[in-house]
Design brief:
Blueprint: H1 2-44, E1 47-48, E2 57-58, H2 62-70, H3 72-104, H4 110-122, H5 125-135, H6 142-149, H7 166-191, H8 195-203, H9 208-219, H10 221-236, H11 240-245, H12 257-267, H13 271-299
Length: about 300
């Protein structure tokens, strides 16, 4: 009996060791390229350092006190990020869900729609930014040209130089770039809904609007949660597109958190303060994700 249990324990240990060896490369990769940078960033946030000097000055929580007491640029950029995220969630997700619903209900050339809608998603954010910068150009851009053609020349303006419209212009270009990803996720979710459920609702007299709001949306809540989290995180972390279109201007009207962190780190050479901003920003993103997951869990 003792020999049997000893052999069983040995086999179990070998199985555990074999499984651990399989996941060891992932653990090493995660530790080197994710865990260590996070811990290093938190560590640097407690120092004043220019990134080049061999000596770092310990300042404790002073960098965080500066953020909360006297850095309007940071709070403006964070507010812009929330505006971009809100517009993306309300407009882009609603539109992508509606189109996915229409395509799934039997639109012809479904494969063509998938390709066409997903093309902007695979483009580099810098390329997307320069495309839309040309579209919004005040002199040779398509927007002003079309307004002139249809007799609304009084509405033409320098869109990206206008503090009122510049953030909206950036938001439009961002939604155009990310629409295809949301569309495909919603379409995949719709494919998992049984046709019998939809057909039964249609037999009972439900129209397309009722089917979408009363049946499709409740069933797709897990997918909507995932898409919402990805949309919010993507909008909050926007950077290359803003650099290509406005570089944060005019003024700070399109400044975003990642750009503020970048400027503090690589232009002002204030690595400690930039690390504090990164730590705070990461915490904000974590809290937003957890709140959305908890809200979805309660709704379900």
């Amino acid at each position: 009996m003792v020999k049997y249990w000893g052999e069983k324990s040995l086999r179990r240990t070998k199985d555990y060791l074999g499984n651990f060896l399989f996941i060891l490369p992932v653990i090493i990769f995660f530790s080197l390229f994710s865990l260590y940078p996070i811990l290093r960033t938190i560590h640097l946030s407690l120092f004043k350092w220019d990134g080049m000097s061999p000596n770092m000055e310990w300042v404790g929580l002073r960098n965080f006190r500066i953020i909360f007491s006297g850095d309007p640029q940071w709070w403006i950029s964070l507010g812009n990020a929330f505006k971009l995220a809100f517009i993306a969630v309300v407009v882009m997700q609603s539109f992508s869900l509606l189109l996915a619903f229409l395509v799934e209900r039997g639109a012809k050339a479904e494969g063509l729609y998938k390709v066409v809608y997903y093309i902007p998603t695979i483009l580099s954010p810098l390329v997307v930014g320069y495309i839309w910068k040309w579209i919004f150009d005040p002199y040779g851009g398509i927007i002003n040209y079309l307004l002139e053609v249809i007799g609304l020349g009084t509405l033409t303006r320098a869109w990206l130089s206008d503090p009122v419209f510049s953030l909206l212009a950036v938001s439009v270009s961002s939604m155009w770039s990310g629409f295809g990803y949301s569309f495909l996720l919603f379409l995949a979710g719709l494919k998992g809904i049984s046709r019998e459920i939809i057909e039964s609702a249609m037999v009972d007299g439900a129209n397309g609007r009722q089917i979408l709001l009363r049946i499709v949306v409740p069933i797709l809540r897990p997918v909507i949660t995932v898409v919402t989290i990805l949309t919010v995180l993507g909008a909050m972390q926007m950077f290359p597109l803003v650099v290509a279109m406005t570089n944060g201007g005019p003024g700070f009207s399109t400044q975003v958190p990642v750009m503020t962190i970048y400027n503090e780190c690589f232009r002002s050479h204030n690595y400690g303060y930039a690390s504090a901003l990164s730590t705070l920003f990461g915490l904000v993103l974590l809290i937003l994700s957890m709140l959305q997951i908890e809200a979805a869990r309660r709704n379900n």
